[in-house]
Amino acid sequence: MNSILLKTRFLFLCGLTLSWFTSCEDKAPPAQMPPLPVTVAKAELAKPVVYSEFPASLRAASQVEVRARVQGTLLKKNFTDGQREWVKKGETLFEIDPEPYQKAVDAAQADLTRAEAGEALAQSRFKRLDEAFKKQATSEIDVDVARAERDQSMAAVLQAKAQLESSKLDLGYTTVKAPITGRISRSLVDVGNLVGFAEPTLLTTIIDDSEISGYFEVTERKILNFLAARSDEATANRIKNLEIRLKLADGRIFKNQQDEIVWGKIDFIENEVSSQTRTNQVRAKFANPDGILASGLYGLIGVPTMPDPSKPEVAEALVLPTEAILRDLAGSFVWVVDDKNTVQRRTVTVGKSIPLDQTGGVKKSVILTGLDGTENVIVAGLQRAREGGVVAPQPAGKAAARK
Asked: Which terminus in the chain has less CB density within 10 A, N or C?
C-alpha cells in the first residue's frame, strides 16, 4: 500500500515539473520600453538687461531739524503732530514769548536815535570850526578834534543800527517758521517749556520725500573699472543715463500709482574709497511724488550691466529657462540630447537672472559658458533624463501646442 502511494506521488511531481518547464519554454521575452518623451529647446541668443544689485538705505532728498534759535517760553504750536498735510515753507510752526525781545528792539531803537542826534551835533560843530579855520578864526587842533568827534558819532550810529538789526533778528526768531516744504514730525517740546536755554532746542523735524535718494556701497574691485574709465566723457555720460531700478523689501519693483516702473539716476559718486570698508558710496535718486517711499526704508538698487562681466563690451548672451538648469555637488549643468537621442550632461556657467518683465513672466537665466546655442537642451521632462539614456525629444513649440 505504501509503495503504491509513493509511486503515485512521484508521478504527480514529475508531471508538475514537466508542466513548469513546458510553460517556461512557451513564454515570450518581455517587450522593450519605448524612449520616454522630453521637451527640448536651444539656448536663445538675446540682449538681456541684467542688474547688479546692491543693498541700499533710502533717505529723503531733504531732512531738516527745526530748532529754537532764541531762549524763551514756548507759547504756541500751530500744527498737528504727524499731520497728513505737508507744511509749507515759511509757515509758522511755533511761537516763543516775544516780550523780552520786543523790549530789546525798543531799547536799540532809542540808542540809535541818541546816536543819530550826537552825529548831527558833531557834524554841525565840525562844519562851523572848519569854516572858522578857513578864516583863521580858530586853530587847526580844534578842527582836528571836531573831525574826530564827528567820525566817532558816525561810528556810533552804525553800531546802533547793527544792534537794532540784531534785536529785530532775535525778535523774528521768536516765530519759528518751516524752512522747507514737507512732512512734519511730532512736537518734541510741549507748550510752556523753556527752550533755547543751554543750546538750540530741537523742536521737530521736517522731511521732503518728494524725491528719495538711495545710498549704496560699491566694492573696491567693482569701482576700479569706473575709475579707470571716468576720464572718458562717453563713459561718464553712460553712467549718468543708466536707468536704475529699485527693489523694495517685499521683493516688489518700485512703481508709481499708474503701475509704471520708476527709474532712478545716479547723481553722486563719493570722491574717495573708504579705507575702512574698502567701498565707494554711490547715490541714486528716484522721483516719489505719490509718497510711496519713506525715508529710512531698505531696498536693493539694481544697476544695469552687461550679461557677461568679463566682456563689458558684449551685449548679447545665451539665455535658457531657469528650470532647465540643474545643480549638484559638481556644479551647474543641463541635460543635452545629441543626434542619436542620447542624453548627455553638459556643465555650464550660469550668469544673472533676467527680470520677468523682459521674459513674459518666464524665469530665464544667462548662460556664460558651456553652450554655443546649437544644442538641444531638455527644458521639460527633466525627471526622465539620465546620463546615457535614450529619449524621444520633442521641440518646445510642439509640446506646448499639444497641451
From this structure: N
At the second CATH level, the architecture of 99-173 is: Orthogonal Bundle (1.10)
In degrees, rounded to 5, the angle at the alpha carbon of residue 57 between the alpha carbons of residues 55 and 62 is 150
- What the block records as the C-alpha cell of 243 is 536707468
Residue 34, classified by CB atoms within 10 Å of its CB into exposed (0-12), middle (13-18) or buried (19+), is: exposed
For residue 313, which phi and psi values (nearest 5 degrees)? -90, -10
Q: How far apart are CA 118 and CA 294, in angstroms?
A: 60
Q: Tell me the pLDDT tens digit for each residue of 311-367.
A: 777 888 999 999 999 999 999 999 999 999 999 999 999 998 888 878 778 899 999
Output the pTM of the full model. 0.72
Q: What is the largest CA-CA distance in the chain?
A: 187
What is the Cα–Cα distance from 252 to 172, expressed in whole angstroms? 48
Cα of first residue to Cα of last residue in the chain, in angstroms, is: 75
Cell reading at 296: 529710512
Q: Does domain 52-59+208-305 have CATH number 3.40.50.300?
A: no
Q: Which ranges in 27-139 belong to alpha helices (H)? A: 99-134
CA 325 to each of CA 335, 344, 391: distance values in angstroms, whole numbers, following the listed order: 8, 14, 18
Average pLDDT over residues 203-225: 91
